[in-house]
Amino acid sequence: MAEMDTSSGGGHKKGPGVKKGKKMSTRVDLTPMVDLGFLLITFFIFTTTMSQPTAMKLFLPKDVDKPEEQNKVKASAVLTIMLGKNDQVYYYEGDDPAKLQSSNYKAIRDIIIDKKRRTDPKDFVVVLKPTVDATYKNTVNILDEMTIDEVKRFALVDISPVEYTYVQATEKANGIQ
Amino acid sequence: MGRAKLPRKSTNIDMTAMCDVAFLLLSFFILATKFKPPETLKVETPNSVSNKIAPEKDVVMVTLDKDGKVFLSVSDANVAQKKAIIDEVNTAKNLGLTEEEKKNFSNNPTSYIGVPFSQLKSYLSKTPEELKGVVLPGIPVKDTLNNELIEWIHAATSAFFDGNKKMNILLKGDDAAKYPSFKGITDAFKKNDQMKFQMITNPVAVPPGTDLYKTNIATGTKGASS
Lengths: 177, 226
Known about the structure:
Chain A is an alpha/beta fold. Chain A has helices at about 30-45, 110-120, 135-150, 160-175, and strands at about 55-60, 80-85, 90-95, 100-105, 125-130, 155. Chain B has 8 helices and 5 strands. In chain B, helix 2 (about 80-95) crosses helix 3 (about 100-105) and helix 2 crosses helix 6. Chain B is about 40% helix and about 10% strand.
């Protein structure tokens, strides 16, 4: 409460009446400023979009109705990959869909590479046949796989009813819902 | 006793350096930031090794959402093309759109088409506020006989051709979308002789040991060239 300043006056070297300017420290407490800085940093980190989306090019072939205009490929050089439901892949070599085997998106790479190694590069063709159960992600993944394995010739084709029945039978046998 | 007296140190640290770093980072993020556009449609894009940045100019974007619904949008800068597209569709399909309704598509920056032709008039007569929360049916594509995207792409192709601009067709698809919708979209592109299109993906690294990986090391490139 009301205190008397008893210290003033005597005992000082300076004469009476000379007020001593209190020496203030030049240091400022920077803690709040740092707090604010980091708050803004976190805000900008969260709102920023660092990675620009990339785009993958796809060239569609022209539809040819006449069979004589269609490209002929050697049956032995063809690898047909069918995309089923639940991220499952079915493939067969040649032209007999009855020989189909199941695989997945990880294992299919080795199969493609293996087939590519065994086949004459100028004949090698991969035929991709997504079923109605395949997702867009599956389709993009397998197209990407073509880029990764450097398959120069591949085609995205509709699945034939015969092949689809084989796929469905295999799915049933493997218990895939 | 013989205990060494530790000098009592001040607990105050000099914050200046930390403050410098904080603001350096802050200025970096402020400059590097690019705000995400408000997403009206949530789409989870798949990954690919492609490293080509998606174009941003003269874009006709076809969005495929997780339910397989298809939406069409044109980049905001192409107001003239948007107007031409809606004009052409209006004439071709006899929709009887008023100028006001056409403007709703061409001048509205975030607008996209997500309804069949039969509902287009009522869709465009609504303001963006009225459309909030409304579930749109999407443009019909799955039925080959009634693929309305063909008409839209046709209108877009001629609009960009008349404007002497190179049209970039982008497809932004969701991971969970089913293949038939994708096929409907590619069919619509094919019918209009638009054989080139690009799919928006998230970039991922090329898996080591693959042929592409070896080629990239040999040529000193990253990602896929095409």
